[in-house]
Every structure is written in structure tokens, then in C-alpha cells.
């Protein structure tokens, strides 16, 4: 006889997986031993910390009410207790928290709900839904669970056609790729940082602050937005019409139109422009036509002419399409339904199958353009908790 199935298996230990686990234990009163988080990182939020640290993020783009705890105002009420001595815990507007404050508060959430003990360091290889349980093949062996939540984070980093992944990573690297180490680029120069959005701007500012000459390169005019989509997408202002739309192709079009891709807040743009005025940074708007590795670095061929740099750092976001790669593609082959865009066709409780929920990018067609953000993590947890009562857990 096989052992009883685990009530809840969360695949992914990033912000979405951690917040959901905290909500299951803290709000739905699911016993902690009935929740397992499967993630290959040595510690929970490992990839999140690596990404935010790699680009030199100081303050988050999200308001202070978007965090991993249970109550919206936890960060505002006691920042001095969470991160003593932090000089600027919040940035205007919307009280956006400092990354140190956010990370220390996240550590407290993990400790409060005993999530480190619920972290199983492994990777999901395949998911096989069944009538009574879901079998998940992992690097540690098979796991059976009554409920599985796919909290899979982002797709792979996107490389422009002129910068294939086969190039030496000490010459051309993506700042969001596994293994990227910003410290290895400090002291070289000049470095070309490619990408006109917030990630590229933060990375350029961080390198310049550490004494590295930077050429910040973008294709398009500055796109200045405080958030990566209008705040009205969090509530009924925009979501009411989105939720009423039955055509998933039209929902996808609404999401694409709503996103401010490659944008950055006005305050960050002012900092870039100030560095240019003092001669500490070069801001270039142009298109890369190709590159050539040289003895000393990289020659970039721009429309305006060639530029010589010691290396190129890409801050060009993530690939289009659903997260999850082969794991999600295999579920599609097993017959789980998708929309024309290839993303899961899910219900209001974010179920792709009666025993498989999704969050993050996989939940976009229900949660809209903010699904991948911290507010999306909180809204996803609310939807999933609708099924987390004792009767649902035992189903």
C-alpha cells in the first residue's frame, strides 16, 4: 500500500510559493506538516534574492502593502523593528520598501510559519495528474499530493538575436541568468548595459556607483511609468471588464496592451540623467546591428557607428510565453487545456486541473497583467484559499 498523499505540494520557493504557504498555514489553518515547498535553491527566495541583488535594486517598485506576510500594513507599522538602522526604509511615492526591509520581513515570515522546515531542495521533472492524487516526479524521487500548486517564476532570460547564448559569458552575459556575478564586472570598463527598462537602469547605476564606466544602451525613447501596469489592474477599475470578457484571446490582448514593457520610474530616470551630466555615464539611444569579439573586449555595431567596450551586460527581460518550460509543455501534451496564446485555461480558483493550481505568469488569464508581481502573489493566494478548507483538503 502506498503512503497517503501529501495534502499540499507547492512547486517553487519564490515570493509566490512562500506567500501561498504562509497563507495556507496562517489563514486557512492548514497544519504546517501538510505543506511542502519544492525548490532547488539552497534557501527559500534564493532566486529572488540573487536577481534583486545582481541588478543592485535599492527600493522595490511595488508599494509597501505588497509583501509576503499576511496583513497589508506589516511593513509600515514596524520598519525599525524589522530592519534596525536602515536610513531610508521607504521611497516615495506609495511607500515603496527598501530591498533590505523587504528581505528581512520575508525572513520573519519564513520563520513565523516554519517554512524552512517545509522546504524540500529538489526540482520537479514531471507532473502526472490522477483522479485521487497528483504524482510529481522530482530529482529526489516521486511525491504524491492531493493538491499541487505550480508557482514557477519567470521563463528563461531573453537574448537578442545579435547576442546568442553561445558567446563567452565573461564578454556577453545576461544579468538575470543563473550564475551571474556583478562583482566580476566591477573595475572593467567601459561596460555596455543593454536594456531601457528598470532592470537595465538599476544595473547601470549600481555599476557606476562601484566605479565602473558604463554605457547605457536602449532602443526606444524613455518609457516613464511608476509601475509596470496601471494600478487600476489590481482592483475593479480595469479587472471588472477583463473578468467579464469570455474570449481568452481578447484577454491576452488586454494584458499585452496594459503592460509598460521596458519602462522605469521618473526618479530612476533622473538619476541616470544626472550621471550623464556629470560625465560618469553615457546614455545612448540606438539599435545594435551586431557584435564582434575583439582581443580586449567587444565591438558593438550600432546604427550610429561602432562602439568599443570591455563587455556587454544584457538587461533584456525574459522570453515570451508561459513559465515552466518542459514541465508545463508536458502537462499540455497530457491534455490540460490552453488558450490560443499557449497559457493555461484555468478557473476562478486558478485550477488548471481539479488538483493542480497555478500562480504567477501561468495565472495571467485570470489575474491580468499584475499576475507575476507581488500583488499577483497575494491575489493568487486569495483565489487558491477558496479551496483550502478542511473538506477541500481531504478531497
CATH architecture tag of the largest domain: 3-Layer(bba) Sandwich
Sheet of most strands: 8 strands, mixed
Q: Name the beta content range.
A: 15-25%
What is the name of the CATH topology of the largest domain?
FAD/NAD(P)-binding domain
**How many beta-strand segments?**
18
Q: At the fourth CATH level, what is the homologous superfamily of the largest domain? A: FAD/NAD(P)-binding domain
Class computed from helices, strands and strand pairing:
alpha/beta
How many domain regions? 2
Rounded mean pLDDT score: 95
Molecular structure report:
With 395 residues, the chain is of the alpha/beta class. It has 2 domains: 6-155 and 321-394, FAD/NAD(P)-binding domain; 172-225 and 260-314, 3-Layer(bba) Sandwich (FAD/NAD(P)-binding domain), CATH 3.50.50.60. Helix content is 30%, strand content 21%. The chain contains 13 helices and 18 strands. The strands form 4 sheets. Strands 1, 2, 5, 6, 7, 8, 17 and 18 form an 8-stranded mixed β-sheet that branches. Strands 9-16-10-11-12 form a 5-stranded parallel β-sheet. Strands 13-14-15 form a 3-stranded antiparallel β-sheet, with no helix packed on it. A hairpin with a 4-residue loop joins strand 13 (288-293) and strand 14 (298-302). Helix 1 (15-26) packs parallel to helix 12 (374-385) and helix 6 (198-209) crosses helix 9 (266-277). The longest helix is centred in the N-terminal third of the chain and has 14 residues, at 99-112. It is globular and about 65 Å long. The model is unreliable at 390-395 (pLDDT under 50).
